[in-house]
Design brief:
Blueprint: H1 5-39, H2 45-66, H3 70-78, H4 80-105, H5 109-130, H6 137-157, H7 162-180, H8 185-211, H9 220-244, H10 249-255, H11 258-269, H12 277-302
Helix pairs in contact: 1-9, 1-11, 2-4, 2-8, 2-9, 3-8, 4-7, 4-8, 5-6, 5-7, 5-11, 5-12, 6-12
């Protein structure tokens, strides 16, 4: 038995390492994504979303064909319940993309990062309100601290943080409806971009007609940056799908804070956004909230006999 144990443990350890590297890479790529959209600030948010849709469709289409998953796509398109969930998730995804790209264009990466910091707690609230999930005392404390942080953020920016709330709510409900759709990550993204494709083509066609020509799209600089939005969208998603199959739920949940942390640092150190004392307090409280939430999740994972509600998906 002792001679077999190391051989069994090694593949498991290698599997976990591969999952961690893939998961960290996925969130790091998401974290640095504002830099790409910042370079496209002269194109226009809706045009960027339209091109992101078409290039993502092309890139993921190649992946689907190469991995022989066209059958999964056909099955999703034939199933009414799946297609209905995918249609709603598509609208939410498109809305999330539009808010995010507009926020980068408007120099609001800091508020965007705040939105993705509160997203896990929005998922908890969705679980309570729509899935009948019960939360324990520490999870309610985390939610309460997050609500205070949002209120303080509103004071800090002088308005309700619509960008942060919009990103957190659209992505939270996107996950909710994708959870009900029986289709994997790559095939699901292909179906979503396929649904958005007619709107994207209509917008680009209307823009070309209005401008009397391709405009900035004729410039190689912008053309190739827009083409890059396809793999920039799909590659992190594929890495994430690879990671979650190999990591413990808690580990995958902890990694989700890598993306908004990078965005937060980019906003201050690279993009030159300012942050006042009230906003610092707000971010401090949201980090406290996440520490409480994550510590409780870890504790419950280490105590399987402990009675408590199922941990919501991050």
């Amino acid at each position: 038995m002792s001679a077999i144990a190391p051989a069994t443990a090694e593949p498991a350890a290698a599997r976990t390492r591969a999952g961690f590297v893939a998961g960290f890479s996925a969130y790091a790529l998401w974290g640095f994504l504002p830099l790409l959209f910042h370079l496209l600030d002269g194109v226009g948010s809706v045009t960027v979303v339209a091109n992101r849709t078409l290039w993502s469709l092309l890139f993921v289409g190649v992946v689907i064909v190469a991995s022989r998953r066209l059958g999964e796509v056909r099955a999703a398109l034939r199933d009414r319940a799946t297609l209905r969930s995918m249609f709603i998730s598509t609208l939410l995804l498109g809305g999330n993309w539009l808010i995010y790209i507009w926020a980068v264009d408007a120099g609001q990466v800091l508020e965007s990062s705040f939105g993705y910091f509160i997203n896990p707690l929005v998922n908890v609230a969705i679980g309570v309100l729509f899935l009948g999930e019960r939360q324990n005392r520490w999870q309610w404390v985390a939610i309460a601290v997050a609500v205070v942080a949002i209120a303080i953020q509103a004071i800090g920016v002088g308005r309700i943080p619509f960008i942060a709330l919009g990103l957190a709510l659209t992505f939270g409900f996107y996950g909710f409806f994708r959870k009900t759709a029986r289709v994997n990550s790559a095939s699901g993204l292909f179906v979503e971009t396929l649904i958005l494709c007619p709107l994207a083509l209509l917008w680009i066609g209307w823009t070309l007609w209005q401008q009397g020509g391709p405009g900035v799209l004729a410039q190689p600089y912008y053309f190739w940056l827009l083409a890059l939005t396809g793999p920039a969208t799909a590659v992190p998603l594929l890495l994430f799908a690879f990671a979650v199959q190999r990591l413990r739920f808690t580990t995958a949940g902890m990694l989700q804070y890598v993306g908004p942390t990078i965005q937060f640092l980019l906003a201050i150190l690279v993009l030159g956004e300012s942050i006042n004392a009230t906003q610092w307090l707000s971010f401090g409280l949201i980090w406290v909230s996440l520490i409480i939430y994550s510590a409780d999740s870890v504790a419950r994972r280490r105590s399987p006999a402990r009675v408590g509600p199922a941990e919501p998906s991050p």
